[in-house]
Amino acid sequence: MIRLFLLATALLATQACVSVRTNHGYVLERGQTELTGEPGLDSKESILAKYGEPSMIGTFDTNAWYYLNSYDTTRAFFHTKTKNRTVVAFHFDQEGLVDNVESFSLADGTKVNLVSRVTPTRGKELNFWEQLLGNVGQLPAGIGQEGPTPGQ
């Protein structure tokens, strides 16, 4: 009986070790090998008809469309690892025709380390109890103040 219980517990514990694979962004359809556009021939409308809405449109240049795809894996409680990432950038000229098509992979990316500094603020630092009990006994704003009554 104890062996059966230990076996069941071990099987349940291994469920947490399952690898999870996720695919985000634009996924190539069956038969597609890459996203392409003929410079001077394809337009914004033809790219929309072929591939649908882009993942992103350039913030400062609305004539730049980006189709993103990312393949990630996760195991249990470990950090997610990106196995593959593809970005296809379509650049259009002023008439809306494809001017240039660029493709970037995970190797072309740059890792950006975020700054973890904290900006100091003026004022009093409150401990846990001061935050929890700070307003006990104080009246809400406007109660107990004398002033003109409504309608006068």
Q: What topology emerges from the helices and strands here?
A:
Elements: H1 2-14, E1 19-25, H2 44-51, E2 56-57, E3 64-75, E4 81-92, E5 98-105, H3 128-133
Antiparallel strand pairs: 1-3, 2-3, 3-4, 4-5
The mean pLDDT is: 81
Secondary-structure content class: alpha+beta
Number of helices: 3
H/E element string?
HEHEEEEH
Describe this structure in words.
The chain has 152 residues and is of the alpha+beta class. The chain has a domain at 37-110. It contains 3 helices and 5 strands, in the order αβαββββα. It has helices at 2-14, 44-51, 128-133; strands at 19-25, 56-57, 64-75, 81-92, 98-105. Strands 1, 2, 3, 4 and 5 form a 5-stranded antiparallel sheet that branches. The longest helix has 13 residues, at 2-14. The protein is flat, with a radius of gyration of 29 Å. The mean pLDDT is 81.
Any descriptors?
152 residues, alpha+beta, 5-stranded antiparallel sheet, 3 helices, 18% helix
Short summary of the structure?
By secondary structure, the chain is α+β, with helices and mostly antiparallel strands. Strands 1, 2, 3, 4 and 5 form a 5-stranded antiparallel sheet that branches.
